[in-house]
Amino acid sequence: MRILLDGMGGDYAPVEIVKGAVAAAREIDDTIAILGPEDRIRECLENEGWQGDNIEVINCTEVITNDEAPAMAVKKKKDSTISKGMTLMKDGAADAFISAGSTGALLSGGLLLLGRIKGIKRPAIAAFFPKIGMNDTTLLLDCGANVDSKPEYLLQNGIMGSIFVECVKGKTNPAVRLLNVGAEDAKGDELRKEAFSLLKDSDLNFEGNIEGRDVVHTDCDVVVCDGFSGNVFLKSSEGMALALLKAVKEKLTEGIRAKLGAALSYNKLKELKDEFDYSQEGAAPILGLKGAVLKMHGNSKALEVYYAVKKAIPYVENDVTGKIEKAIGKKSIFGLKITD
Amino acid sequence: MRILLDGMGGDYAPVEIVKGAVAAAREIDDTIAILGPEDRIRECLENEGWQGDNIEVINCTEVITNDEAPAMAVKKKKDSTISKGMTLMKDGAADAFISAGSTGALLSGGLLLLGRIKGIKRPAIAAFFPKIGMNDTTLLLDCGANVDSKPEYLLQNGIMGSIFVECVKGKTNPAVRLLNVGAEDAKGDELRKEAFSLLKDSDLNFEGNIEGRDVVHTDCDVVVCDGFSGNVFLKSSEGMALALLKAVKEKLTEGIRAKLGAALSYNKLKELKDEFDYSQEGAAPILGLKGAVLKMHGNSKALEVYYAVKKAIPYVENDVTGKIEKAIGKKSIFGLKITD
To answer: What are phi and psi of A321, to 5 degrees?
Structure first.
């Protein structure tokens, strides 16, 4: 297996990206190919004391920044890490592509250079959301690839999410729910009402609507949403979690009495923080493209890179892409109402 | 001033509603009129030892439940607390109406019996969202009245929210933002792009887009959103806050060492919990109706009722309804592009 890693994506590239690649490469037999300016990447590898043989460097002279218009940048900067990575994927020269770079550029590059799976209307960004106290996650999609959605996209999100969870987490017949403003069947806007009946008529294990407040503690595997509300959901939950954990820390260090208390509670609070820590979940797959493309947070460091590489392996090994293609093609399996 | 209180709305009616009414009535000169079956309400008043003269009881023989189709129920059950309350408001026999009953019935009753302010396209539910560590709140609207929205509704939400914050919190020129998937101007779906330009062209103090994760710590007064994403935002933040606070409590009572720590930190953690406690904020105003209508959480107890009554007073005294009507009428003031 050959895993491509965008050496120039994110806030801490290339140093932390290379550091994470080295940590992962030491544990796996597969090859990691880092895309970026060869000199800089090699220098970073040297600084890490790397002497193994399963890291390659693929020279790229350009980088796409977050400020550029994605589609334009992808077309113009043919020697950028993202354009080159997508082209290598398209050519079958790599099995997965991981990047902490611009989401827009990754999506544009995916659509323009790698392409969609036949029958898939829109690729979707799938994020792992922690279920507190359950040591598990829910796969939430779409989290921002398509802000203007149609009911059919939501059905396809349910299909892609189910296949991903089944393949990568080994969970059979994953439970799917639709993010909505109420739990009752008839709730929501026009988009949700139509998506609900499509999901209900499909062969997915659809368990109905779910409200924003219940995702964190409900035993369900896939939460289907449009890119706008998924993004709002994810970011508001994150914002609240970060604000609260910060506030807990501040409160616990106000005054000697509380400080002493905090010292005694430290390990327990640390455990809690880890439970909310997304870093070990790996990167967010962009499902629906003709290959395994994974998006890391822009602020990813070596640990996130390490987990992203390790978690990409079952994605490829279980042929998620092929299975999505098959499911979308065989209308009978899922009882789909897909027109292409 | 005569404040109507739905004695039969919510999970703890009528006992907790009456208890809260008594607590508020003891501190204010205005009259509280409780709607409900007279015998039961009077019995509750007796149990509270009420002997004052500023609580009235208005007999209602019917109640609208959460399971009923709202518009139908409002029309059919003319002697329900909600229908009667709205009719009294319409007739000018009361200044505010507070209820913890069905949101749908309150909205339907508001639209059918009380009516919209002239020029207002859709009323909106406005909720107070805590800004952590800033001892302040942001007014978020709409939180679920309209799940299918148009750009113009969002502009009107900005206007209504600004007037409410200016009148009730005394903040001049409140800062308004648009809930979106990114902070840059051009972000979002079609609805957001059009709403952005309407807000930008208005005379509101519009400061641009805001992402879900930043609301909790950004110094802005009004966050404009459509009813679907506002509902998702509010419920996901709430869900995360509740799950986290529960987890903190559980972690801190695992093992003797942590328990001792928790005992020492108790006061500080209590302070934090209070900061996230919405109960003191009062009820959520449904802005855009021809009168002050406020919706309490279904799980409201006496404390919430007490604060809802007290916070309703400045809403009426400052004539928020009249000011919204004026602002919407005088197109020149806000540079509105409103067609009616």
So the answer is: -60, -50
- Residue to mutate among B136, B228, B250, B277, with most A CBs inside 10 A, is B228
Q: pTM of the entire structure?
A: 0.90
Amino acid, single-letter form, for residue B49: G
The topology (CATH level 3) of B129-279 is Isopropylmalate Dehydrogenase (3.40.718)
**A242–B269: do the CB atoms touch at under 8 Å?**
no
Q: Provide the CATH topology of domain A126-279.
A: Isopropylmalate Dehydrogenase (3.40.718)
Q: Which pairs from B171-174 meet CB under 8 Å and 24+ separation? A: B171/B221, B173/B205, B174/B205, B174/B221, B174/B222
A233, A241, A258: residue with CB nearest B265: A258
- How far is it, in rounded angstroms, from Cα B262 to Cα A248? 12
Q: What is the pLDDT of residues B85-114, one digit of tens each?
A: 999 999 999 999 999 999 999 999 999 999
In whole angstroms, give the CA distance from residue A279 to residue A281: 5
* Axis crossing angle, helix A151-169 with helix A190-201, rounded to the nearest 10: 50
- Predicted ipTM of the assembly: 0.88
Tens of pLDDT, residues A181-204: 999 898 999 999 999 999 999 999
Do A1-120+288-340 and A126-279 agree at the fold level? yes
- Spatial separation of the C-alpha atoms in residues B161 and B138, rounded to whole Å: 10
